[in-house]
Fold this sequence. Notes:
There is one protein chain. Helices cover 44% and strands 15% of the residues. By secondary structure, it is α/β, with parallel strands linked by helices. The protein folds into two domains: 1-173, Rossmann fold; 213-313, Magnesium chelatase subunit I, C-Terminal domain (Helicase, Ruva Protein, domain 3, Orthogonal Bundle). Strands 2-5-8-1-9 form a five-stranded parallel beta sheet. A two-stranded antiparallel ribbon has the order 3-4. Strands 6-7 form a two-stranded antiparallel ribbon. The longest helix has 17 residues, at 246-262. The protein is globular. The model is unreliable at 316-327 (pLDDT under 50).
Amino acid sequence: MTDPSELYADVxxxxxxxxxxxxxxxxxxxxxxxxxxxxxxEGVPGVAKTSLANVFATATGLDYNRIQMTPDTxxxxxxxxxxxxxQTGHFEAQRGPVFANVVVADExxxxxxKTQSALLEAMEENQVTIEGDTYPxxxxxxxxxxxxxxxxxxxxxLPEAQRDRFQVKVMVNLPSRDDELSLIERxxxxxxxxxxxxxxxxxxxxxxxxxxxxxxxHVDESVEEYIVDVVGATRDHPDVSHGAxxxxxxxxxxxxxxxxxxxGRDYVIPDDVKAMAEPILVHRLILSTEAELGxxxxxxxxxxxxxxxxPPGGEQxxxxxxxxxxx
Length: 327
């Protein structure tokens, strides 16, 4: 089973046996896994952010390590260090928890910027350097970081360079009333239900082949131009001091291809780009001082950006735009 749409359907169905109402979040995690992306999960405590990452790794057959970030977490606690072995008389690399397929940096904004930066090389170059020696990370590697948006004490805002390396930011919101009722019923019927009850439904070979299919998805030149224009519009918005980088442009290209493949298409449409705009852009925009003081809504700015760029095939003729009044 290598078709991306079937792969996503199987993963979503299996995770759905435990978690309720997370179809959008599972889709974005799948898109990231198919495009070598990293994910920033944001939500209030208790909405199953860490559990989502855990069961996603289980369902896809990937190794999983969780790092609890705290103010006293050191870079070596993430990447590893070298230990002297008396038997051999040499220093031996002791690899840290970053050496896994899915690495969950739980409450990443509780770690200091110095510790957060320990993930930069891993996220960009798929390798880490331990005391001068470089070690490759697994081919299947993704960082899933979680953060709580409501706590202000004892946290450190992610640096711009760190945020830019997250392909998408995924909001995990409180469940709807119906979903919460379903949650009660599910755990009333089976109080012992845990992430361990989720089973693997996808193999690594399936993921690798699905990645290759995604890479071959067709993107028309007009859609490529649309992506560039959307990213360019973030740099011209009056509330934005620094817009999205070329890394965001590539994120649009890759995630739009993955979304098309999950939908069963072998070509990208403008709606794929629009659907990925908020997850890709909302954490990358650096607002102007006035916008920050005015607590401007980044999602609303993304909507403004999309409204300012005409998608392929979206041009209107003058007659359609301004109907002529007849006497």
